[in-house]
Specification:
The complex is a heterodimer of chains A (394) and B (396). Chain A is α/β, with parallel strands linked by helices and 394 residues long. Chain A is built from 13 helices and 12 strands. Chain A has helices at 5-13, 15-31, 50-60, 77-91, 105-117, 133-140, 158-164, 187-202, 264-277, 285-292, 301-317, 340-349, 374-391; strands at residues 37-38, 100-103, 123-128, 144-149, 169-175, 208-212, 235-240, 253-257, 330-331, 352-353, 355-356, 366-369. Chain A has a 7-stranded mixed beta sheet with strand order 2-8-7-6-5-3-4, with helices on both faces. Chain A has a 3-stranded antiparallel beta sheet with strand order 9-12-11. Chain A has a two-stranded parallel sheet with strand order 1-10. The longest helix of chain A has 18 residues, at 374-391. Chain A is globular and about 60 Å long. Chain B contains 13 helices and 12 strands. Chain B has helices at residues 5-32, 51-62, 78-92, 106-118, 134-141, 159-165, 188-203, 229-232, 265-278, 286-293, 302-318, 341-352, 376-393; strands at 38-39, 101-104, 124-129, 145-150, 170-176, 209-213, 236-241, 254-258, 331-332, 354-355, 357-358, 368-371. Chain B is globular and about 60 Å long. The chains are: A alpha/beta (394), B alpha/beta (396).
Chain lengths: 394, 396
Amino acid sequence: MGISKAISKSMKDSSWIRAMFEEGEKMKKVHGPENILDFTLGNPDVEPPEQLKQELVRLVTSDTPGMHRYMTNSGYEDVRAQIAGVHASRTGLKFTKDHIVMTVGSAGGMNVVLKSLLDPGNEVIVLSPFFVEFKFYIENHGGIMKLVETTEDFHLDIRKIEQAITRRTKAIIVNSPNNPTGVVYTEEELKELARLLNGRREKGQRIFFLADEAYRKILYNGTTLPDVFNIYDDTITITSHSKDLALPGERIGYIAASPRITNLRPLMDAMIFSNRILGFINAPALMQRLVGKLQGISVDIREYQKKRDTLYAILIEAGFSVVKPMGAFYIFPRSPIPDDVAFVRELQKHKILAVPGVGFGTPGYFRLAYCIPMDVIERSRQYFMEMGIKNNRR
Amino acid sequence: MIVSRQIQKLIADQEGWTRRMFEEGLKIKKLYGEDNVYDFSLGNPDTEPPEELQKMLVEAISNPVRGMHRYMTNSGYDEVRQDVSGYLSELYGLPFTASHVFMSNGAAGGLNILLKVMLNRGDEVIVPSPFFWEFRNYINNHGGTLKTVRSTDDFQLDIDRVADAITPKTRAVLINSPNNPTGTVYSERSISDLVTLLNRKRSEGQDIYLIADDAYRKLVFDGLQLPNLFRAYDLTCSINSHSKDLALPGERIGYVAISPRLPDADLLMSGLMITQRTLGFVNAPALFQRVVSKFQRTSVDIGEYQRKRDVLYEALMEGGFECVKPQGAFYMFPRSPVADELKFIRALQQEERIMVVPGRGFGKKGHFRIAYCVPMSTIERSVGGFIRMGKRFIKR
């Protein structure tokens, strides 16, 4: 056998998602990609902002010697200082370059943080429905994922979180705006969570709050993202520029650790070290310089909001039960029949590709990623209506 | 303690001398000024990427194509892998296709995703020593155990020792040629003996992979040809980087090449699709994938590195040092005139303001590594120092 047992198990575990994906690819070949309404992938169809493109041209024509060389594993100092500055003014906390590590996107960042924190057998709480990759990230570094269900409307269920905490709990991952639900957690619920974690802290257990803020700028109707740094001290955010600057293929993001974390230095050293030994070495050089200057801008969020409005209206009209997303570019309706995989297959017959909820630890739902052209969303109306009429009548 | 105990231990293991050396180095730089310190401690080439590459980069960015910064499949762009495989077919004379090439975040990324695919907990990986220290961390990341095997005095493979080190748990042999830290290129003889050994094991029912860290593959001197590993042994994977040949270390771009002769090559590729994703790389940086695909046959000026080697090597000889003449990469690994190389290195730093890395950082005490990927002027100004130190410390 050419590959490790763990990896061949991972291959089997994810094989049905793969099957869906491959079926989709086959359908595209048979019917032509333009005839398939693909809602499966969080790969935004938008282009980076114009200002970014100009800045990129300016950078590569600047003829700065050494701009493609190694730098310190944490990333360029001036870039980290720029990002720290944005954090300091937003939070009022004393962020400096020493609180920032540039990473290979948030996937890289999350692996670096978990590698630095976890000893074998440590537990990490993840709220379901959840981004499946978290399980792999945690297990990569010897940790154990503890899933905790959220409420009916996908918000924090503090009592369930409390019940899930054990002496081995090292961290909780909170992803808001959320993939796959699009939910944004409120300040109140996060404060309640902080009270719970602080209670543990008084008993001598430090539980880190890991905020995956990959979608932090994609918020609708004036929703604001609560400032997690001012809610709980042991907070680390993991941010990506895949979505806000539409650079997913370039793999650029960063870790920001709260200046309020006591005894932070060893943790920062560990993260810089992990960035090196996991093989990232450093975040891609050119992209670091690029995003350093562009912290203030983002792609046009209104476009996403229009898409959300259109898709949400279609689903409601078709009779689906769905929580209205306030951020990210996902929507997570309840499947009209309990078997979400069967329902997704039925959608496929109408050339609509979606991901079943079981892929996010929550069977009975399905996820639609609407970071796609508006006309695809509009063309899906007729099919969702048909599916709704057929399945949602009670 | 909040930090993982394992990471703490790893950091502590290397902290001692690295940190001390680093801090002393900083002090000396402050005292004498950066320009008066000869820093041979880092493998961070001072060269710029080839002119045409820079031109293509500007062009690619000035005429943006829709979707050029988006995700693609985890293995990288099909057309990029196609280009690379065309080059590999030509280079090795085997039918490489896109399905044998996996674009990675440099060699470090490539090695991590490959080891993660291969290793079960407790599996052993044999590495000839002296060796690039990070191999230990990479293997350890994925539950494997590093087994070092001493090389011969001229830093070639000691096949008897390799044979002795093989156990039923041996999963792979990881070699790096041209070598960091010695600059040695393994001879045809070294490789053919190794392959004979591995094939014997194979016939006994144990498949051992040969993983070649080819990060310095194009940096070979004196017209030397590297042995063709892919033709020599079926279970070969090669880890490639464009950090050195195209001088793009900060951009993190390279690839894993899997032998078309490897049974289960498809399975290995599917495994890489998963580890690339789950380890958090997701894909190699998009823009630089496209850029490097057009420069597979190009490299920075190797002649320049060779001239640097010549000047430095001559100086070491004049100073009376014992040193295997490097045939590639940009490292030299002389024997320290004092058994405790830390003592010698400290003297070199304090008296001649020359900074090098102790051999224990590569699993071999009593030596030191010189990374000569620095400007020629730095080398020229430092040779006097090396000669003086050699004459003072080496008894004839």
